[in-house]
């Protein structure tokens, strides 16, 4: 076995390079066919919150996980958001308004304005955080 063959074998077995290349290839296909053509407004939403709030309608694989196409789309949208906006968009309060151009009410990383969200800490949802 040559040094190059040995190095390739190590890359396959230890680092799973082929697995990463397959994922990146799937992502590039989707980026070129879909996400690169999305408008800024279409990308201005929290994809993770959208997926978790609409999760029951997505197809599942045999193990019960959300299908591969949806996961690849999510990864591509995260990459496209990072490329265009310099960050992945997360909403602090988790509101996703699919019918309003994917607007995020409060962007966790947006420091241009005061985005403090007032919460009632007497509410049951937040009572576990009381001292």
Strand content: under 5%
Q: Count the DSSP helices.
A: 6
Largest sheet: 2 strands, antiparallel
> What does the radius of gyration come to?
20 Å
Number of distinct beta strands: 2
Q: What would you call the shape?
A: extended
**Fraction of residues in helices?**
40-55%
How many separate domains make up the residues?
A: 1
SSE pattern, N- to C-terminal: HHHHHEEH
| Oligomeric assembly | single chain
Structural class: mainly alpha
Neighbour order of strands in the largest sheet: 1-2
What does it look like?
With 131 residues, the chain is mainly α. Helix content is 49%, strand content 3%. The chain has one domain (3-109). It has six helices and two strands. The radius of gyration is 20 Å and the shape is extended.
Structure, briefly:
With 131 residues, the chain is mainly α. It contains 6 helices and 2 strands.
List the helices and strands and how they pair.
Elements: H1 3-15, H2 17-33, H3 40-43, H4 47-54, H5 68-85, E1 96-97, E2 103-104, H6 124-127
Antiparallel strand pairs: 1-2
Helix pairs in contact: 2-5
List its traits.
single chain; mainly alpha; 131 residues; 6 helices; two-stranded antiparallel sheet; 2 strands; disordered C terminus
